[in-house]
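Would you mind writing out the residues of a protein together with its fold in token form for me to study?
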Amino acid sequence: MSFSDMVNQQDIAVCERVQRGVASRSFIRAYHTKMERYCHQLILRYRSEIN
């Protein structure tokens, strides 16, 4: 297995675990870090425009 294939498989596993966690009824919400502020701004803008 090549290095990139190994990394890709690890990324897939992490994403699958995150999705299972988010789907859990005990999950309330997530917080954005300072590095994700633009993502957060986009989400807020999107929400305001669809309502």
